[in-house]
Amino acid sequence: MRHRLALLAVLSVAALGTVVPLGASPAWAAPTLSVSKTTGLADGTSVTVNGSGFTPSLKQIAVGQCIENMKGPTDCNLAGGAQFVNADASGKLPTVTIKLAQKFGSFDCTQRTCVVAAQILPSGNNGDEVEKNKVAVKLSFGAAAAPTSAAPAATAEATALPKTGPGDEPVVVVLAGTALLFLGIGLLVVLPARRRRARAVAG
C-alpha cells in the first residue's frame, strides 16, 4: 500500500508539467516519452511506452496514466499497470505496457485531458533532478476525426464539356433544313436544262 501511494504521488507531480523554477538554468535536454497510440483511444486500450533522455542509470522512475494538472495521488490510474522502472546507462527506459482507462476514479478522459506521465520520486532527489526527469504525453479518447477530402478535380472539368443533349436539337433541324433547301434548288436548275438538251437532240 505504501508503494502504491508513493507511485501515485510521483505521477501526480509529473502530470503537473515540466515547469522550471525561477533562477534554474536548464542546460539539459528534456526527456521524452514515446506512446504507441495517443488518439482515437477506447477504454481498455493497451499501449506501450518507451522513454529516453533521462539521467543515466536513474532509479525508481514512475510511469503511468493520470489526468493533466492533477492535485493529488488519487488523480492517477494504478490499476492500468503503472510501475517503477530504472533508466539504463544511456538514459533509456525499458518498455512499459499500460492498459488505459477512459474513466478512473471520478474522472472521465473524454471530458478532460489525460496523460501518460513519467516522474522520479521527489524525496531523496534535489529539485533540479526532479524537474529534468519528468515528462507527460497527452491522450485523446474517442473516435479519431476523419480527414476532410477535397472534391475531385475531374468533376469541375466534366461540367465544362460541350452539351450534347436535347438542347442541341433546334440547331440540328436548321442545318438539315438548309441542306434540303440547297438540294431542291439544285434539282430545279438541273432538270430543265436536261429537258432542253433532250428536245434539241430529238429535233
From TrEMBL:
Protein name: LPXTG cell wall anchor domain-containing protein
InterPro entries the UniProt entry points to: Neocarzinostatin-like, Neocarzinostatin_fam
Biological process annotations from GO: defense response to bacterium
UniProt KW rRNA processing keyword: no
Family, similarity comment: Belongs to the neocarzinostatin family.
GO MF assignments: DNA binding
Signal peptide span: 1-29
This protein's record includes keyword Disulfide bond: yes
A Pfam match: Neocarzinostat
Domain of life: Bacteria
Keywords from the named record: Antibiotic, Antimicrobial, Disulfide bond, DNA-binding, Membrane, Signal, Transmembrane, Transmembrane helix
Positions of transmembrane segments: 171-191
